[in-house]
Design brief:
The protein is α+β, with helices and mostly antiparallel strands and 504 residues long. 23% of the residues lie in helices and 28% in strands. The protein is built from 14 helices and 24 strands. The strands form five sheets. It has an eight-stranded mixed beta sheet, with helices on both faces. Strands 14, 16, 17, 19, 22 and 24 form a six-stranded antiparallel beta sheet that branches. Helix 13 packs antiparallel against helix 14. The longest helix has 11 residues. The two termini are 43 Å apart.
């Protein structure tokens, strides 16, 4: 399927344009367990026309920007309530004065998620603060933006460089009444990890307000959380921002990012000017002017009362580019995301950092299979299974309606009266009413097989994570087994991403 969007999935930024451009509606954006959206192609609808690849921003070269760079500081009050020097608030204020429709990434009221939508109230402005740290579902508002533009309304779109590129790819033409502003981005953080992080703080009480870059706590790299009970907590960079800058929970495409302040995605590029902010205490922003429309907007920004601006020297611009560069993918990224999914943000972070914890993660796994590992499968009837590799994932395809069993040998025999924890990620497509996960004495049909988990058919064709515990009543169990009485349907399959079993 090299002529479909699936062939370039590793570079996918989640812009979602392919799902709109497909003439047969064969592409749907679905979230993985990591929290990032990717395109999924329905092979029954796809006609291999290649339009999805043609429009995809991820495969296009980035036009190098000859931007002019400036630092910016609004009045003291605006700087105090804003991240950096208040450039975002200044832009929004100007846009509202011109009756411009504004679309930006905004926190939900519970602060658990971020999505692009039209700014309606003053409260929306406070919810936008610091959002570029978390990936937004930007593509949901693209049709609404196009409708506003066609109605001759002025539109301001704010997003990361890849979100801006996605908007341009969807619109497919230039609009004089559209201003694009891309925020400086050090990578798109997992929405799922952000949700787990916020939930880990809600033991105090429900969150009322969240500020990234709080001046009260000084500095632009801090987080302040206000709770409904009026208490607040300082969240230092060590547990969220430091690990964000390490790249621990970024989208995979971010590790090969081709923007890094050098692409001319928007008419303006904006961000926190950290080197000056740290010395100043009040906060500064930087602005890159990338186009004629951006230049006109910059002239208006400089005319705001009590605003301070000055050019940024070339050597300082190079330092900024290095600051916002994305690190290499950490070796423990996948492990952290798996643990965060099963045990939450705090325990996962403790484990990754090698701190003592009560989760038992450091104990030896008696089964630790990941996609790409040499197959340890023992298949009872090989005639009914075929192995296929697709999109870097290994699928076991069913060849009939016989009773299906798959056995995986454990590293050791399970011990009676000992508690074991099992955790696996899989997806499947079948008309079977249920598929059973079991332990087994031997890889034979008459084996002793205590039941672990039943997977219902309504979970078909989507990734799921199964987790639980089991205490054996015998000392004879040596295999992990999957079984189903009728693994049937159109092109039935099962695919594992990982299977992990450990002693508690």
């Amino acid at each position: 399927m090299s002529n479909t969007i699936i062939s370039i999935k590793p570079a996918c930024t989640g812009c979602g344009v392919c799902s709109y451009i497909c003439p047969n509606s064969a592409i749907e954006m679905k979230s993985t367990f990591e929290g990032f959206s990717y395109p999924y192609v329905d092979p029954d609808k796809c006609v291999m026309c290649g339009k999805c690849c043609e429009v995809c921003p991820a495969v296009k070269d980035v036009e190098q920007s000859e931007a002019k760079w400036y630092c910016f500081a609004a009045d003291d009050h605006t700087r105090w309530i804003s991240a950096g020097g208040g450039i975002l608030n200044a832009l929004i204020s100007l846009a509202r004065d011109d009756e411009t429709v504004i679309y930006a990434p905004i926190f939900s009221k519970d602060h658990l998620s971020v999505k692009h939508r039209k700014l309606e109230t003053a409260d929306d402005v406070s919810l936008i603060c610091g959002v570029p740290y978390v990936q937004s579902n930007a593509h949901a508002c693209f049709p609404e933006i196009k409708e506003a533009l066609e109605d001759n309304k002025n539109v301001l779109f704010i997003g990361t460089p890849c979100e801006v590129e996605g908007a341009k790819a969807y619109l497919q033409k230039e609009y004089d009444n559209l201003i694009l502003v891309n925020t400086a981005c050090g990578g798109a953080a997992s929405p799922f990890v952000w949700e787990e992080f916020v939930k880990s703080r809600e033991g105090y009480s429900k969150i009322k307000r969240l500020d990234l870059g709080s001046k009260e706590l000084y500095c632009d790299e801090s987080i302040r959380i206000n709770f409904e009970n009026a208490a607040y907590q300082e969240v230092k960079s060590g547990d969220w921002l430091t690990n964000y800058h390490k790249g621990l929970f970024l989208r995979k495409a971010c590790y090969g990012c081709k923007y890094n302040l050098c692409g001319s995605s928007g008419d303006l590029t904006i961000g926190i000017y950290y080197p000056v902010s740290k010395n100043d205490g009040k906060g500064w922003s930087f602005v890159g002017v990338n186009s004629e429309k951006g230049s006109s907007l910059w002239e208006k920004l400089q005319q705001i009362p009590n605003v301070t601006t000055s050019p940024i020297p070339p050597d300082a611009v190079e330092k900024l580019k290095k600051y916002f560069s994305v690190p290499n993918m950490p070796e423990d990224r996948q492990k952290f995301l798996e643990l965060c999914y099963t045990h939450g943000f705090n325990k996962a972070l403790k484990t990754i950092n090698g701190k003592p914890d009560d989760t038992g993660f450091t104990k030896k796994y008696i089964l630790d299979y990941h996609a790409g590992d040499p197959l340890p499968w023992k298949i009872l009837d090989p005639v009914v299974w075929t192995k296929r590799e697709f999109d870097s994932e290994l699928y076991l395809l069913s060849n009939g309606d016989k009773w299906k069993r798959i056995f995986l040998p454990l590293n050791c025999t399970l011990k009676m009266s000992t508690q074991y924890h099992y955790n696996l990620k899989l997806k499947m497509k079948t008309d079977a009413q249920e598929v059973r996960l079991m332990f087994a004495e031997k890889a034979e049909a008459d084996s002793v097989c205590p039941l672990l988990h039943k997977i219902r058919a309504y979970q078909n064709d989507t990734w799921m994570i199964i987790s639980g515990t089991y205490i054996p009543t015998t000392d004879i169990l040596k295999y992990f087994m999957l079984t189903s009485t009728d693994f049937t349907g159109k092109d039935p399959y099962i695919c594992f991403d990982w299977i992990r079993i450990r002693e508690e």
